[in-house]
Amino acid sequence: MPSHPNIPTRLLPHADPPRHRPADTSPPAPAYLALANSLENQVQANVFRPGDRLPSVRSLCGDHRLSMETVLHTLRVLEDRGIVEARPRSGFYIKWRRQLPEPLPPPLRLESSPVAVSKLRHQAFSIGRSKGIVPLSNATPAPEILPTAKLGRMISVLARAAAAEVIAYAEPAGHQKLRTQLARRSSDWGCLMKPEDFIITNGAAEAIALALRTVCAPNSAVLVESPTYYGILETIETLGLRVVELPTDPQSGVSPDDLERAVRSIPKIGACLLVTNHSNPLGCTMSVEKKKRLVAILARDQIPLIEDDIYGDLCQPGHRRPVTAKAFDREGLVLLCGSISKTLAPGLRVGWIAPGRYRGRILELKTNLTLACPTIPQMAVAEFLEHGSYDAHLRKIRALFADQLQRFSNAIARYFPSTIRVSRPQGGFVLWVELDPQLDTTELAARALDQHQIAIAPGCIFSANGKSFRNCLRISCGYPWSARIEQAMKTLGQLIRRS
Fold it and tell me: For residue 442, is it within any domain?
């Protein structure tokens, strides 16, 4: 019998001892096919599990004494069979072969309504930070994946070398060096900005609040995504504004057609507030064409767009950073907000706003409220952007988040019921899960926390009325995958099945 070194004997037909078999005159399987079959069998035997990385091309060449061309042919066969997927600059990974459908967007309701803040919104942030909790609720990156030590050293050096500047007030608009660095980076966003286009804020939350206070009259309506980040809803409620929730597709975001219908039907619209890149909680990104149309529709009626780009830098590896809607603003109607909270250091509370035609009013309001932001965090972030290898750091965390999203998605497919839907984010690090309609994730979140110390974010807190999306939940993938997290995902699946 011909030798088949890469195919286990148990896979061959009629596995009698070779001495009792007649000579096999059929040609051996091509080497690439033999290796493909062997690897597929190992996947079926759970030698490789969904989410696992295959050995490198070089390792497969050496282990099986095959050429690189043959191994690449093998991997193409496995891709065609739907067994592996290539990740740019990362290698080949085992796919979870049960492709879960994505969540469905809600229907369009052409009405504005007040925000009914649920106590759960206030609890969501604090619970996820408690010691001993498996932190799947807060959209914050784990401290261990951030450049904490490098930033700490920079702050120490700055505190000694520029002590007089550190303890003095910064300019109300923000530290000049930081605004210069942001202007240099703005080309990545599709914009060409100057340092004076920026005002530094205490995180993106203050930037959004300043924008809303500036452009919205009392009791006016704000167009938002649905579902939308609960922090945005809280700010809108605090300011006494109303919301119009626009259905959001988990891949392409808000429909310009829905936006146009809302603009024509809803009176007294003060602003539109959207996360156009890697939104929270869906992870969707609007296409360039949709962004252009979005800006044009709003400009026609002179409605300001408050664009939250806090996740813009967190695209998937191998993909270009998406441009902002601000790139297509010709009338100064787009107020672009951002922050380093998702990429560098949430605790430094460094954000910014590029407010276009509203700069004077924003700066006056900012000065009246807080005068200026703390100096040393601004200096540290400016230093990191200039000398801290920020782009290399972004490449690292983009790969980490992409891997974590894949691992969490695989765990959901493995442990959760087969009837669920789950988002497939194009960036960021959160997943949106839609369960069976009869399930209440508020109760699920309470049981997970009380009985198993697992924190998740129930879907109702992402709606204005606190009642929609009750069968949905958001899972943060900001912490590195571990045995503890896998056990938590398995436990969640068991709780869901028993609900």
Answer: no
